[in-house]
Amino acid sequence: MQKSICFAGSFLAGLLLSGVSYAQGFLKAAGTRIVNERNENVLLRGMGLGGWMLQEGYMLRVPGPGQQHTIRQRIQELTGPESTRAFYDAWLANHTRKEDIDSLKAWGFNSVRLPMHYNLYTLPVEKEPVPGQHTWLEKGFALTDSLLAWCKANRMYLILDLHAAPGGQGNDLNISDRDTSQPALWESRAQQEKTIALWRRLAERYRDEPWIGAYDILNEPNWGFTDPVNDRNGIREKNNAPLKKLMQEITAAIREVDKKHIIIIEGNGWGNNYNGILPPWDNNMALSFHKYWNYNDEASIRHILDARTKYQVPVWLGETGENSNVWFTAAIRLLESHNIGWSWWPLKKLGANNPLEIPLNAQYRQVLDYWAGKGPKPAEADARSGLLQLAADTRTGNNILHRDVIDAMMRQPADPTARPYQPNYVAGNTTLMAVNYDLGPNGGAYYDLDSANYRVVDPKLQGGNRGRTYRNDGVDIRKNGDSYAISHFESGEWLQYTLQVTQAGRYAITLAPAPGDAQVSIWMDGKKVTGKVALGAGRHVLRVQADSGASTLREIIIKNE
């Protein structure tokens, strides 16, 4: 796979989509729109930096408990305190750098959402030397300052998001690194006061920065206030009084020092339950909602559209992603048709359904196998080496670039045509890797029967790439050693390849491995090929179609005979 580089190329075509405007002073709410100081509509197209300041277990493929503090404890048990500190220092230094923001800009994004862990900015309540006071830590502020400088250099907005609040804001433990041995945010006034104080401190520091787009004051609260047993995550909560009270207190603290920045609020139940919270209490406020694994139709966003109209307030999709390219394209097309900006999740992790993928090294795999009970305990030196290599591989230059993900997000919502995944020059004998079919939407560059994950609305609809590797379309791809192959190539599915023939002639086309009992047909320029095919110099479109059965496809061999 191609390593990541900062490039523009065809991905800048995404900038041609309607509604984009760039910074002219502070963003502000104007009725149902987010505008700049020229009153121009600003449609935020953003990426969340999940996994940088706050790790979640699934991003590192960690089995079992996935809170960052438990991951850190398990690492320390393997490598000791000093090596653990070295790992986390390297992780923070490498994961997000200027080249990441440069790349986002080149690809067409205009904003970044920073998921902050409070413990990089202030001590936990239980570790304060003087109860009730707040010790400020320079690490988090310095990291934020650097990120802001990179965003400013690229004329991109930075949205601050408190992802892990003191005590943790919900029963979904991983997303806020909640430690259940300590009182949760909703169980402790001291935790709430630290949260309020942190936002006041942030607002003091950044009040004069127009490239700070907004303050997203509390990520995905999910807490059952009135029915903590049967509604642990607050999906059915009718009142939400404690959540509203805290968000109002945070707003008041921010407004003591900062009158300019948009304040973004999120409902209960992972951001979507606004019962009892509205109307907004500030005239420069926006509502966030989060969207995962459901249909991309108007019904799926009706609740937030209705709130926007009723309260005349802007809305923003603060977090979404973790699906296939088909889902990404459809979601962005839906959102932008309603003038709703968005922030995808995440930029990078161990996994292929994001723009950048952190590679998995062999020694870290041994650590994961041990934690999963599938292998012996690795030697301390091996575990340390694997973890430090993992931290080094978070750097952009060591990441695997998924051009198909970027194309699905930035080009395909407005341009559904198929384009070559890579140049396919045919001259004499040529072998094409089957996994390098064209870039484009399902039904345009390929056709797959189960192309996205809709498990929230129907647990049976969990499609997409079953192998979860190489590309993020619906096409199933598996890895075999150092090579990749199409798997589960089922009746009715097809793959398209745009060819550039540089030497005219009669060509024989064969597939490897042979389909076996399955029936697979080959089409060229819309006509079925039954023997050799005459190809003139120039562009041609090859299609491989599964007619019956299921097969595996690794290579397409084209010979001039």
Could you tell me the strand content as a percent range? 15-25%
User: In CATH, what is the homologous superfamily of the largest domain?
Assistant: Glycosidases
Radius of gyration computed on alpha carbons = 25 Å
Low-confidence stretches: 1-21
- Which structural class matches the secondary elements? alpha/beta
Distance between the termini: 32 Å
The CATH topology assignment of the largest domain is: TIM Barrel
Instruction: Please indicate the count of domains.
Output: 2
- According to CATH, what is the class of the largest domain? Alpha Beta
What is the number of beta strands?
A: 26
Largest sheet: 8 strands, parallel, barrel
| Helix content estimate | 25-40%
User: From the coordinates shown, what is the CATH architecture of the largest domain?
Assistant: Alpha-Beta Barrel
Strand order of the largest sheet: 3-4-5-6-7-8-9-10
User: Kindly state the mean pLDDT as a whole number?
Assistant: 95
Supply the number of helical segments: 13
Q: Any idea what the shape is? A: globular
Organism: Chitinophaga japonensis
InterPro entries: Galactose-bd-like_sf, GH, Glyco_hydro_5, Glycosyl_hydrolase_5
Protein name: Cellulase (Glycosyl hydrolase family 5)
GO cellular component, one term: cell surface
Description:
With 561 residues, the chain is α/β, with parallel strands linked by helices. It folds into 2 domains: 26-52 and 107-356, Glycosidases (TIM Barrel, Alpha-Beta Barrel), CATH 3.20.20.80; 416-560, Galactose-binding domain-like (Jelly Rolls, Sandwich), CATH 2.60.120.260. It has helices at residues 68-79, 81-95, 98-107, 138-153, 173-176, 189-206, 241-257, 268-271, 298-311, 325-337, 362-371, 380-392, 403-410, and strands at residues 28-30, 33-35, 45-48, 111-117, 157-164, 212-216, 262-266, 285-291, 315-321, 341-345, 348-349, 356-357, 400-401, 425-426, 430-433, 446-447, 477-480, 483-490, 494-501, 505-512, 519-524, 527-529, 533-535, 538-548, 550-553, 555-560. Strands 3-4-5-6-7-8-9-10 form an 8-stranded parallel beta barrel, surrounded by 4 helices. Strands 14, 16, 19, 21, 22 and 24 form a 6-stranded mixed sheet that branches. It has a 4-stranded antiparallel sheet with strand order 15-26-20-23, with no helix packed on it. Mean pLDDT is 95; it is low at 1-21. InterPro entries: Galactose-bd-like_sf, GH, Glyco_hydro_5, Glycosyl_hydrolase_5. Residues 84-348 form the Glycoside hydrolase family domain.
